[in-house]
Write a structure and sequence with these properties.
elongated, 64% helix, 9 helices
Length: 180
C-alpha cells in the first residue's frame, strides 16, 4: 500500500515541479519529487520499506527504490560477477557454487574484496602456484574446493613484503674495528 502511495505522491510532485521550469531543471525533478514523497509519507507515519542488502534488484523496484539505488546495486552485482569469473578463469575452475551456503558466500565476498584491491591478484596466485611446481605449499584446486576458508587463511602470507635493506660493512669499517 505505502509503495503505491509513494509512487502516486512522487508522480504528483513531479507534475507540480514541472510547472516551474524556470526554478527547476528536468534532472532535478525526480530526486526532489522522491524526497518530497518520502517526507509526505513520514508525516503520515508511513516509513519507506528498507530492503535487505544483497536483495534482488526486482525487490528494490517493488520497494520503491530510486533508479540510482537500482543502478548502484546492478553495478555491485556486475563487479562481483566479474571478480568471481576472473577467479574461476585464472585458477581454471569450473563454475563454483558461490551462493550454496554461508562458507561459499563468505568466500565470494573475500574474492570480490581482493579483486577490488588488485585485479591481477588471482593471476599472481596462479603463477606462483605453477612456479613452485608439484610440491607447492599453496593449495591446489581440489583443496580449495573442499575448504575455501583455507585460501582465505593463507592469503595474507602471499602478499610480498619488501626485504629490509642491510648494511654491509666496508673494508675501512672492518679495519677500524680490527676485524681484518
Amino acid at each position: 500500500m505505502s509503495q503505491t502511495l509513494r509512487r502516486e505522491l512522487r508522480t504528483a510532485f513531479e507534475g507540480i515541479l514541472a510547472r516551474y521550469p524556470d526554478k527547476f531543471t528536468l534532472p532535478e525533478y525526480e530526486p526532489l519529487a522522491e524526497i518530497l514523497a518520502d517526507a509526505a509519507l513520514q508525516i503520515r507515519g508511513i516509513s519507506r520499506v528498507e530492503i535487505p542488502d544483497g536483495s534482488d534488484p526486482d525487490w528494490l523496484l517493488a520497494g520503491g527504490a530510486s533508479s540510482e539505488e537500482v543502478a548502484a546495486l546492478n553495478e555491485k552485482i556486475r563487479f562481483a560477477k566479474e571478480a568471481t569469473d576472473k577467479f574461476e578463469q585464472e585458477l581454471a575452475f569450473n563454475p563454483l557454487p558461490w551462493a550454496e551456503n554461508a562458507k561459499w558466500t563468505r568466500f565470494q565476498k573475500f574474492v570480490v574484496e581482493e579483486y577490488r584491491k588488485d585485479p591481477s591478484c588471482f593471476r599472481y596466485f596462479s603463477s606462483k602456484r605453477t612456479n613452485e611446481g608439484k610440491f607447492s605449499r599453496l593449495p591446489a584446486n581440489p583443496k580449495i574446493y573442499q575448504d575455501p576458508d583455507l585460501l582465505i587463511a593463507i592469503w595474507p602470507s602471499l602478499i610480498t613484503v619488501e626485504p629490509e635493506e642491510h648494511h654491509y660493512p666496508t673494508v675501512e669499517e672492518l679495519e677500524s674495528k680490527g676485524m681484518i
